[in-house]
Amino acid sequence: MSILSENFNNKIIIAPLADVSDAPFRKINKMFGADLTFTQMVSAKGAISNQFDSLRYLVFAREEKPIGVQILGNDPIVIEDFISQIVSLKPDLIDLNCGCPAQKVINQKLGASLLDNPILLEKIIKSMVKKSEGIPVSVKLRLGRSKNKINIAENVRIAEGAGASLVTVHGRTRDDKYSTDSDWTAIKKVVESVKIPVIGNGNLFTPEDIKNFLEYTGCAGVMLARGVIGNPFLIERTKQYLETGVISENASIDKVYEVLKMHINLLLREYNELTAIPKIKKNIVWYLRFFDGISVLLNKIFSFNDIHSILEYLDLHVLNIKNKNYDSEDLSIIDKKFKERIIFWLSDDLLIGS
Asked: What is the chain's alpha carbon radius of gyration, rounded to the nearest angstrom?
């Protein structure tokens, strides 16, 4: 059954995040109630050229469904070939990335650069629909290139007319990247202008944010990105709030540690230890950034090079949190840095693909 054949109200979709949205991340988010997850953004050109890094992003397990594939491309013919290959994998949604503002992507006239070329955008979407064999096609869009060039209304109408089954709108421009507040009013106007479902994205970090956003904009659902990194509990808490009007407390250190250990074990099963260790270190910081002692953790965790030392220190760190052995910190500073994408230890250009 297609995800679009179900009641689409209040769907929570997890964005495709470069170097984040691997199988362990998707499985954890699914466990907490995500309605749809995505593979990492896949280069159409790279995939049809049999580039390993592109092809491996397409791998997903049956229990991960429903799942979407987001593609990066600007050549309708290449995209047709790519979609002809991936329909056999039976993803539940095929999405075109027109939102990534990373300079390396823009320089190749990909991602958010497509916002400036509505004619090409229409050709690409029609090619996708033509080859998708009934799998729904969606498009991830930003508001436009800049505050002085907002063309979301035109691009959404093109997407709908070309056969897209839904659109996701990130409430910032390409030039904004991630540094401004999401424009809810612009997204609301998009919802009112089309008949297909609109998913809203951008700056949604709390159950209150999400509920207020859905009520104000009328979006069919939300796409969460930074909000669920190290925080899959947001999904469960939001669903409970939408259903009951009651907001549960933030996850306790015991609950966070339980899920973090589960995530670490999934990473160790998914990758060899050498590959897993950098991912484990980042996830430890992401999960524990809500607790005092985060500054100590940041100074210490990246000095370890073997899994035994990491896990031994992690046990000690969590025990210190539980025993209140750390000085109180202004965690809002850490949260601000996280939201500004400082605490990622990755290239700015490669972190988030949409």
From this structure: 20
For tokens 């409970």, name the residue.
240
- Distance between CA atoms of residues 110 and 117, nearest Å: 11
Residue 97 β-bridge partners:
140
pLDDT tens for residues 10-58?
A: 799 999 998 899 999 999 999 999 999 999 888 888 766 666 566 777 8
For the purposes of burial, counting CB atoms within 10 Å of the CB of 267, is it exposed (0-12), middle (13-18) or buried (19 or more)? Answer: buried
Q: Looking at this protein, which amino acid is placed at residue 50?
A: N
In the set 100, 137, 219, 301, the catalytic residue is 100
What region, left, alpha or beta, does residue 251 occupy, with left being phi > 0 and alpha being psi -120 to 50 degrees? beta
CA-based angle 26:29:33, to the nearest 5?
Answer: 130
For 199-234, write each residue's pLDDT tens digit: 999 889 999 999 999 999 999 999 999 999 999 999
In sequence order, which residues have a C-beta less than 8 Å from that of residue 142 and are 6 or more positions away? Answer: 98, 99, 101, 112, 115, 152, 169, 170, 172, 173, 174, 176
Active site residue 98: no
Phi, psi at residue 194, to the nearest 5°?
Answer: -130, 165
